[in-house]
Design a protein that fits this description.
Number of strands: 0
Strand content: under 5%
Helix content: over 70%
Radius of gyration: 23 Å
Order of helices and strands: HHHHHHHHH
């Protein structure tokens, strides 16, 4: 039995070691990439036109999808909370529960995940296509830093756009919650708003906006990194986009937990 197991165990161990080495290699490459990004962030020229273009693409062109998704989340979450609160005769607390959950967690996370799907994959594909068609190599030949020209505007625009869209998600989500609670479930509107104002503090909103800015930094940096290191032609572009979306989504969820734990200790 031991002899039969050897041919299977050795390739399995080899595969595990290869994947572990590959993981640390990617982490090292990302650390170098992020260091270069920080170094060029204060370097001139400041290309304002590129920042505005990326902010329009990431922020303004995403208003519709963020509004729709946050409206749906607010309405669905309210529907479930009202049914739960009804067992305790506490339906008036639904505004406070939805408002706090949106401000602290749901609004920044839903905004980040939607923008990863919409803009993160596009970022990776665009930069990856430039890499495999040697446009990035041509930029380096002309002494143009591709990280400064391509990556920095996307990162800065994401850091600015994510909190703005998160604030919009808060407003639209609460509007959807109000409609469901008041007009569909018969909650008293005065009590709904009173509990909302009493429970949700500016600190809750600020913590969500801080999370959104960090998530914007993570999304743009991770997606740009995988696009910047794309290989193997058009197939590699597709693989890089998939890997970037999965990695940034998981990373944002992990970072959300870490930031939530830190903010509960520091801000509350």
């Amino acid at each position: 039995m031991a002899d039969k197991g050897k041919p299977f165990s050795i390739p399995l161990l080899s595969h595990a070691l290869t994947q572990t080495a590959r993981f640390f290699e990617v982490v090292g490459l990302f650390a170098v990439f992020f260091g270069r990004l920080l170094r060029v962030s204060i370097r001139r020229p400041f290309r304002l036109r590129l920042f505005v273009e990326q902010f329009e693409r990431i922020g303004l062109q995403s208003i519709g999808i963020i509004a729709l998704s946050s409206l749906a989340i607010g309405m669905i979450f309210t529907l479930q909370i009202v049914m739960l609160m009804a067992a305790f005769q506490a339906e008036i607390m639904v505004g406070a529960a939805v408002g706090m959950t949106l401000a602290r967690e749901l609004a920044p996370v839903i905004t980040a995940l939607m923008l990863i799907a919409k803009n993160g994959s596009a970022m990776t594909a665009e930069i990856g296509t430039m890499r495999v068609t040697e446009q990035i190599d041509a930029m380096e030949t002309m002494s143009v830093d591709p990280i400064h020209y391509l990556v920095l505007p996307r990162v800065v625009a994401s850091i600015l756009a994510f909190p703005v869209l998160t604030a919009l998600a808060n407003i639209v989500g609460l509007a959807g919650s109000y409609v469901v609670a008041i007009y569909l479930r018969g909650v008293d509107p005065g009590a709904f708003l009173d509990q909302l104002y009493r429970t949700v503090d500016p600190t809750d909103v600020i913590s969500g906006l801080i999370k959104a800015a960090v998530m914007g930094l993570m999304m743009a940096t991770i997606c740009s990194f995988f696009g910047f290191n794309t290989q193997r032609g058009s197939k590699g572009v597709g693989e890089a986009a998939t890997t970037a979306v999965v990695t940034s989504s998981v990373g944002i969820l992990v970072a959300d937990y870490i930031m939530a734990d830190l903010m509960l200790k520091v801000m509350y």
